[in-house]
Structures are given as structure tokens and as C-alpha cells.
Amino acid sequence: MIIFPAVDILDGRCVQLVQGKRETATAFGEPLICAESWLSQGAKALHIVNLDGAFGSSILNAEKITEIITKTGVEIQLGGGVRSLEDARSWLDCGVDRIIISTFAAKDPECLTILSDEYGSSRIMAGVDARAGEMVTHGWKRSVGNFLEWADLFTRKGAGSLLYTNVSVEGLCNGIDPQPVQDLIRSANVPVIVAGGVTSVADITTLKKSGAAGAVLGSALYSGKISLQEALEATG
Fold it and tell me: Which residues are the active-site residues?
């Protein structure tokens, strides 16, 4: 099980949001410095989100993200504002290990097949953002149906892994809701990485027992509710 420290970038700064709301942003400095800090503490992979892209300006932060890719050389999965095949290809060609596609995949699932054929399914991750069992898109504002059904469709179309984010608990640092995670992992035939609410050693232990391939740590890590060392030790 892999721990992915989050490096979420908004207006060129590393930030953390609460419930995905832009106005809640707390800044933590230069993205590359934050990334290198987590790597120096033992992280082997990073989860990068281009929040400006998610809010509609996909070209923003490209220089910052490219700098992290080229200077760290570690495993990186990237999401945020991937709205076209051109967006996805540009990041994959830039050296990102996995591209995370959510709203675009819901709108045009065939994009997963096309990209999987071109780059290999292991580099194509579908984002399954859910609230109360319903997948949500367009910045978590639009419900589009049962999240398990969408996850099944995404994998059939070629996604080699899934990123499950429980929107209901994301950014609150109150812990995970294990049931939907377990439901998804049981039904999926690809690796599932979990984000949203991961706050404690107990959360990580639960995810590991459930069979999660990884966990994204954001607000809890930046606020000091859990240290990276604790998180890494919990994975065994």
C-alpha cells in the first residue's frame, strides 16, 4: 500500500481546501519545496492536483507541475482539469506516471479506451468522486448516478486503476467512511487508491485491511494530525 502526500496547486501555491471550496484555501508555500519535503521524509510517490485546472484553467500551473516532475523523478499521479485528450496526452508525454480523469471520463468514457490503447492502462486512472453513493462531477456539483456502476464502466473502458474520493468527508479530518471503500474494492478488478478523510493510523490500517492499493494524505498531513512517518509505518 502506497502513501501519496498531496501537493494541490492553486494560483501557483501549494494549498489545502476544505470540501473542495476555493475560498477555504490555506497556503503552504512553493509546490516544489512542499514536494521535496515529503520526499525527504520518506515518501516515494506524490499526488498532484492542478486546482486551477479543476476550476477551469487547465493551462495554469503547468510550469510548477513540470518542475516537480523533472526535479523529483518519483512516481506521480496527476489530476485536475483534464478535459480533453490533448490535456491528458500533454501530461503523459511530460512524464506523469498516471493521469486522473473524472469529469471528462463521465462525459466521454471512450477517452479511457483511447488513452489506454495509446499509453497503456496502467497510466490511466479514473477518478470516482462520490457523495452518499452518487458519483459527482464538474467540481463535485453534479450527481450523475451510482458510483459503483460508474467505476465498473470506467474499468471496462480501459482504466487501469481508480481513485476513489469520498466527497462527504474530504478535507474535514474526521476520518474515513470505510463502507463505500470496501464496496468499491470488492467490486473492482483494478487497484483502488483512496482519498478523502484519511486522518489517522486507524484509517490507514482499515484501508490496508480492505485491500486499498494506496491512500492520499492531504489536510491531515499538512495540519499535523498525522505525520508522514506514522502513515508510512501503518502501511507495514
Answer: 8, 129
